[in-house]
């Protein structure tokens, strides 16, 4: 996708190291953001954008969407924006950003632009010189040392100024360190304040602010499933090394997952029933908040006769067992076909 030809001149960016560790360390004021929360969807979208970046691209940027509540910002979504950096100049796909924002607002009108994200920028690595001996003659060769990464670059000020015109308030800059040097994925959030000398803007100073992660109900289910799938893959690899049957090492079959879900539901029902009985007996003081939560949960359950529920549940269970049987039968046939092909090829 082509970018707009005009570029912007360079403006220095200064980084103030260290995030505020307590509310007292933050200078409160109208419109001054002191806390940012990020949803997992944003992190996964940035990682996907970084993985699909063009060859030779230093970093990727994009627009952050979310909501503001006083001095707090909640980042719920994002989308990638094409850009190009050439030395001290940067070009941003403004038309692409405008079109994508219009599409996102059609799906969720409550979201607005709260800032922009970027991955850490790799610094130029000149390498180290090492002396070697070849036939009695000393020679020097260049060896590449591990790259270092910067969270803030001079071009960050230019991009930040662009998003200052897109946001209703001061934009948030989210940086994701994808270098994995420390075998971890670091996230940092910044806000910017201009540095002026005699009324003339000299540079932008980026202040690191507190950052936290939060999950909605649906996101938590997906994240838990991803974690369980990773654990299942590790167990399968371990079972293959130890020659353990896969079915013995895996407890994530649909029937097992259904059993675990029903056990958790039964345990929660017992907990709620025990609490209600204790309140009725007077051994536990009533709590209006907990009572309303239990009432809301019960109001979402449709009224249905026990015999009808049993019939529906058994029908769904039979369907699940049939799908499980067919999937295992298909997998067995594929394994037999692969072994026959391998035998005939030999």
UniProtKB/TrEMBL annotation:
GO CC entries: eukaryotic 43S preinitiation complex; eukaryotic 48S preinitiation complex; eukaryotic translation initiation factor 3 complex, eIF3m
Per UniProt, the keywords (alphabetical) are:
Cytoplasm, Initiation factor, Protein biosynthesis
Q: Which part of the chain is the MPN domain?
A: 36-196
Q: Where is the composition biased (Acidic residues)?
A: 123-132
**Pfam families per record:** JAB, MitMem_reg
Entry's localization field? Cytoplasm
One Gene Ontology MF term = metallopeptidase activity
GO annotation terms (biological process) = formation of cytoplasmic translation initiation complex
Predominant location: cytoplasm
Q: Where is this region: Disordered?
A: 123-146
Q: Which InterPro entries does the entry mention?
A: eIF3f, EIF3F/CSN6-like_C, JAMM/MPN+_dom, MPN
As for family, the record states:
Belongs to the eIF-3 subunit F family.
Its biological function? Answer: Component of the eukaryotic translation initiation factor 3 (eIF-3) complex, which is involved in protein synthesis of a specialized repertoire of mRNAs and, together with other initiation factors, stimulates binding of mRNA and methionyl-tRNAi to the 40S ribosome. The eIF-3 complex specifically targets and initiates translation of a subset of mRNAs involved in cell proliferation.
Q: How does it assemble?
A: Component of the eukaryotic translation initiation factor 3 (eIF-3) complex.
- Report what the protein is called: Eukaryotic translation initiation factor 3 subunit F
């Amino acid at each position: 996708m082509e970018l707009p030809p005009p570029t912007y001149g360079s403006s220095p960016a200064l980084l103030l190291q260290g995030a505020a560790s307590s509310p007292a360390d933050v200078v409160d004021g109208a419109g001054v953001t002191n806390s940012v929360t990020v949803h997992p969807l944003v992190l996964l979208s940035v990682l996907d954008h970084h993985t699909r970046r063009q060859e030779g691209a230093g970093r990727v940027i994009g627009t952050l969407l979310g909501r503001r509540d006083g001095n707090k910002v909640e980042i719920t979504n994002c989308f990638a924006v094409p850009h190009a950096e050439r030395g001290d100049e940067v070009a941003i796909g403004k038309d692409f950003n405008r079109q994508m924002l219009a599409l996102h607002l059609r799906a969720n009108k409550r979201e607005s632009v709260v800032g922009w994200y970027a991955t850490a920028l790799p610094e130029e690595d000149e390498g180290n010189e090492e002396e070697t001996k070849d036939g009695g003659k000393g020679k020097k060769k260049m060896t590449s040392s591990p790259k270092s990464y910067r969270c803030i670059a001079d071009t960050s000020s230019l991009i930040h100024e662009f998003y200052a015109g897109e946001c209703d308030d001061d934009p948030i800059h989210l940086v994701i360190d994808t270098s994995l040097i420390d075998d971890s994925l670091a996230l940092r959030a910044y806000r910017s304040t201009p540095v002026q000398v005699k009324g003339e803007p000299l540079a932008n100073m980026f202040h690191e602010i507190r950052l936290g992660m939060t999950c909605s109900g649906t996101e938590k289910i997906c994240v838990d499933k991803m974690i369980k799938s990773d654990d299942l893959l590790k167990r399968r690899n371990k079972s293959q090394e130890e020659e353990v049957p896969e079915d013995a090492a895996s407890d994530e079959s649909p029937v097992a997952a259904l059993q675990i879900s029903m056990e958790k539901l039964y345990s929660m029902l017992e907990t709620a029933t025990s609490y209600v009985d204790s309140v009725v007996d007077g051994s536990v003081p009533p709590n209006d908040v907990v009572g309303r939560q239990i009432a809301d949960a019960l109001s979402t359950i449709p009224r249905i006769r026990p015999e009808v529920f049993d019939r529906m549940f058994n029908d769904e269970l039979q369907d699940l067992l049939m799908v499980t049987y067919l999937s295992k039968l298909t997998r067995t046939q594929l394994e037999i076909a692969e072994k026959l092909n391998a035998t005939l090829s030999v």
